[in-house]
Amino acid sequence: MSELCTNRRETKRYQTALRLQQCAVQLTVERGFDGWTIDDLAAAADVSRRTVFNYFDGKAEVVLGPEPEVDDELIQEFVDGGPTGRLFDDLIVLAHEATREKAHTDHHMAAVREAVMNDPRLIQLVHERFEVAAALLGDCMRQREGDDFPVTRSRTILRLLITCFDDALERTGTDATRTFHEHFDACVADIRGALA
């Protein structure tokens, strides 16, 4: 019986978080990132201000979602040369893992992209997140490939993945018949074809 209660609680928590994110994205599309407050968000989502902070640390996190997390074991497997032994393919595995939980909300992910692309402040915040992720993944690539692995090469590879991510979000916004991950893999295939 307690498992049933836990599942209901988790489902309700997930639904509340998603509602908060959807309202935050809508407010951002309508007013811009700096055009609304946490109080406005709480009113739009019909929750208390305190509830918002029980779920998110601030405005950026509620709009963009929490920082993506990848299992430490998968990171270690990557550093050790796996799971496929091919650097780019293994980065794609990490990208899939980082977006796995968000894949259930493909339409929401596309809406976030729209909000970001129309707001310079959010573009800056996304860029800051990219810089942090690039530094961490760059370190992982150097651990895997050796200290002499060029920093410029790792940044180029990561920018290529970010381009795939952005293209997949745009495709998801215009073609809901395929999932984000299907669009992401299609973009990767297009890049492979172009570079072959």
From TrEMBL:
Residues 37-56 bind DNA. Residues 14-74 form the HTH tetR-type domain. InterPro entries: DNA-bd_HTH_TetR-type_CS, Homeodomain-like_sf, HTH-type_TetR-like_transc_reg, HTH_TetR. The keyword Cell cycle does not apply. Keywords: DNA-binding, Transcription, Transcription regulation. Pfam families: TetR_N. One of its GO terms (molecular function) is DNA-binding transcription factor activity. This is AcrR family transcriptional regulator. The lineage of its organism: Bacteria, Bacillati, Actinomycetota, Actinomycetes, Propionibacteriales.
